[in-house]
Write a structure and sequence with these properties.
This protein is of the alpha+beta class and 192 residues long. The protein is built from five helices and eight strands. The chain starts with a helix and ends with a strand.
């Protein structure tokens, strides 16, 4: 009997610790990524080809490579979303964690913190690029596709282009030869 009670106590303690760790992991805050002056200088050098040319002409590069940290640092530096949105890179996928306080006048959940995450698949296909929503999870619940207006799995570039014209949607990415996302970073290769 003592052996059974000892095993039961160990199982209960392990379960409580595991639940505590899981609760902390899910509720961890989104800390804004703050780039050091050196890191910011490196990122600005990487995106310099996108800036207006100086009077002395010098042909720029065609490849832009940004790490996950650099993208999140730029988000924090140039927007006010650094503590509300964070991107994580995976192979051919972009994961977004978000949190915000809901307006007080929203029924039932007004004033509460909304925490969620979303996953988008990004691929380059023969006829262009696709950006497809795979999942949205809010407060630990994966939302049904019907609640997301049937957007899961659809190419959002086509869906949100004028009159559903994929060619017009591709205008957003005009000039981009290839776009690859992986845990190593985001690589954009520009056309000639």
């Amino acid at each position: 009997m003592k052996k059974f009670l000892l095993i039961l106590a160990i199982v209960v303690v392990t379960a409580v610790i595991g639940l505590g760790i899981a609760w902390w992991w899910y509720n961890r805050p989104i800390d804004p990524v703050e780039l050091s002056e050196r890191e910011l200088a490196v990122v600005e050098e990487k995106i310099e080809p996108l800036a207006p040319a100086e009077p002395v002409y010098e042909k720029g590069g065609k490849t832009i490579l940004l790490s996950e940290r650099e993208v999140n640092g730029l988000l924090n530096e140039y927007t006010q979303l650094g503590d509300q949105l964070k991107f994580e890179f995976a192979t051919d996928a972009l994961h977004a964690r978000f949190e915000t306080i809901l307006p007080a006048d929203v029924p039932v959940v007004g004033g509460k913190k909304l925490k969620g995450r979303a996953r988008f698949f990004i691929k380059q296909e023969a006829d262009g690029f696709s950006l497809a929503l795979d999942d949205v999870t809010v407060w630990g619940i994966s939302l049904p596709n019907d609640w997301l207006a049937g957007m899961k799995g659809k190419n959002l570039i086509e869906e949100f282009s004028p009159a559903g014209n994929a060619q017009q949607g591709e205008a957003v990415l005009a000039g981009v030869d290839s776009l690859k996302i992986s845990p190593k970073g985001l690589e954009i290769q520009l056309k000639e």
